[in-house]
């Protein structure tokens, strides 16, 4: 698997221009950076003067996240649990997913002194509508009315507000890609491959369990960067393919999987396209869901 990834990466590296083109923040990107920096401060707590009023639930492969905005659209609260109840965009452990959402709802209500009655949620692009409905039922069973069900890339862009460019969500299990032109979504797709595949590479290379590899990756990302490079280039190749091989404008990176040191540089070099990465990129889709 590693061999294949390496060969694919080398082949495409020959095709792509080599200059890294990481993009400096524009006004829109600076707004998002400020929002995310602010949001990151409110894990399991709400700042004075902000009443959580609009909720989102992200049923991810690696992480289930509950987010809240106040009436002015400011980040007001978030919480997460790590759970493997969703695979390839499909809820594979319905009761586990309900329990995770119930836990998040109960913790939010205890911390905030309010009730969480309704929330938006999201599904990966390109999952069948029956699987999308499962997300709706998970919330319902957990005592939350589903006020909106959107795809994850559209949710991410509700926060990012990209008018021309690509929005990429690299999560635990898959890489979703949406291309926007003049504010319209012109292509939307999703392919397997994300942070979990990086764990598998690391586990194989260092003879660790997948759980140990996950911890090593998060806590010592810089030390394992060279081992993970082929895996990150494989994600870049997935992005390139899903964009039809054509530069889409600025590539905006959301999702937790590329939070590794220098991952954005590897992606930018591989693609030869302008790339913008965000601190706290793992919060973009969850808060985008609350915005939706
Ligand atoms: N600091 C970090 N360094 C490296 N990887 C990280 C870091 N933080 C999170 N990750 C990785 O990000 C992934 C989880 O990201 P995210 O929460 O966006 O995924 P998800 O929404 O649960 O999955 P999906 O969108 O595919 O359903 C995991 O693979 C995790 O290992
Ligand atoms: Mg996700």
What would you say about this model in short?
The chain is of the alpha/beta class and 292 residues long. The chain contains ten helices and twelve strands.
In words, what does this structure look like?
The strands form three sheets. The chain has a five-stranded mixed beta sheet, sandwiched between helices. Strands 10-9-8-11-12 form a five-stranded mixed beta sheet, with helices on both faces. The chain is of the alpha/beta class and 292 residues long. It folds into two domains: 18-32 and 156-283, ATPase, nucleotide binding domain (Nucleotidyltransferase, domain 5, 2-Layer Sandwich), CATH 3.30.420.40; 41-151 and 287-291, ATPase, nucleotide binding domain (Nucleotidyltransferase, domain 5), CATH 3.30.420. The longest helix is centred in the middle third of the chain and has 19 residues, at 94-112. Mean pLDDT is 91; it is low at 1-18. 43% of the residues lie in helices and 23% in strands. α3 (94-112) crosses α4 (129-141), α6 (195-206) packs antiparallel against α8 (225-242) and α8 (225-242) crosses α9 (263-271). The radius of gyration is 18 Å and the shape is globular. Adenosine-5'-triphosphate binds at residues 58, 60-63, 86, 169, 171-174, 194-196, 214, 217-218, 221, 255-257, 259-260, 282. Magnesium ion (MG) is lined by residues 58, 60, 152, 169, 171, 255, 285.
